[in-house]
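2.7 Reproducibility. Because tokenized structures are sensitive to small changes in the input, we list the exact sequence used for DUF5062 family protein, including any N-terminal residues retained from the expression construct. No trimming or masking was applied before prediction.
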Amino acid sequence: MKKLKHETELVKEAIRVGAVYMQKRGAGQIEATDSAGNKITAIYRLLVLDKLIQPLAKGEDNEPNMRHKLALWISRQLPAGHPLLED
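Resulting structure tokens (single pass, no recycling of outputs):
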């Protein structure tokens, strides 16, 4: 798994966008007091459930891998030329 250049910022953006998606879908709400790990897990599982991302293999579903999957997902959602996609 190769780390993306702006992976930390991409994960933050994925959490922000994923929280909005979760709320609009009616699947729950991300609270400011929730830990980053809980936010990542909830958004990852919702995206897998809705078949927006492919699930990780059994045994590989840990927080670092979920973070990477969310970073990849949001990098595909951002428009071309977005500052987080620059090399």
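The chain has a mean pLDDT of 86.
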